[in-house]
Specification:
Blueprint lengths: L5 H11 L19 H14 L2 H11 L4 H23 L16 H18 L19 H21 L2 H5 L1 E7 L3 E6 H25 L5 H4 L7
Antiparallel strand pairs: 1-2
Helix pairs in contact: 2-4, 3-4, 4-6, 4-8, 5-6, 5-8
Length: 228
């Protein structure tokens, strides 16, 4: 039996919908592995700025008898802590870094995460006692200002959820979701879930930015933290 040629094999693979190996698609240099010094610095910086314990203590106090809001806050705390840590850990010089020309810079990506939090939390309609706030315009450009804007957006969503009753969370609103995912009628709970999913997506995106700039992502840098 005659051996199949490479072009024939490749055509067969494409016809079956099987992706070619990722290694065959690489172009240009690959970012080097993190050095022991870079990993040590990342771990030290992450530990210095980690607010997970403080967030958890606040959550337990605030939502003692509100199980629905409590579980929403728990997931939100995890990803917003990672986003804030990533913003702290990236050096100022890395804020203008683009993995590819068409992607946002790191600073723009953190601003995107912060502004979207305002968008989702305002989409819920605000519970009594909470004053509406929005992302600052023009958008911040320095590391210090971007870090602060990220923290303020998280604090704002924290206030919205802290003021929400369980029954308010279950009330239906006409438009839930974002422009890319589509909007549907749903409960306010859905909006908070969309926000958490988006924060997780943003964090997953920027882990590549961090490693390409010699920074270990906080979820890896804190992997030796005791379980709570």
């Amino acid at each position: 039996m005659r051996a199949l040629s490479i072009p024939i094999i490749a055509t067969a693979i494409l016809a079956l919908g099987i992706a070619a190996p990722a290694a065959a698609q690489l172009k240009g240099p690959v970012a080097p592995a993190l050095t022991p010094e870079q990993m040590a610095l990342s771990k030290a910086t992450a530990k210095a700025h980690d607010e997970a314990d403080a967030k958890e203590q606040r959550r337990l106090r605030t939502f003692k008898d509100r199980p629905l809001a409590a579980v929403i806050q728990r997931s939100f705390d995890i990803y917003t802590n990672y986003l804030a840590l990533a913003a702290e850990m990236m050096p100022e010089a890395g804020y203008s870094f683009h993995p590819t020309p068409e992607l946002r810079s790191f600073g723009e990506q953190i601003n995107h995460a912060a502004s979207t939090q305002y968008s989702f939390c305002n989409q819920t309609g605000l519970p009594p006692g909470v004053e509406r706030q929005t992302f600052p315009r023009p958008a911040p450009t320095t590391k210090a200002a971007i870090v602060e804007a990220m923290k303020q957006s998280t604090a704002y969503c924290d206030r919205v959820l802290a003021a929400a009753t369980e029954s308010w969370l279950m009330e239906a609103v006409p438009k839930v979701g974002g422009p890319s995912s589509g909007q549907i009628a749903g409960s306010r709970v859905h909006i908070f879930i969309y926000n958490i999913v988006h924060s997780g997506e943003d964090y997953g995106t920027i882990t590549t930015y961090l490693r390409m700039q010699g920074v270990m992502p906080p979820s890896s840098a804190l992997d030796e933290r005791p379980a709570r």
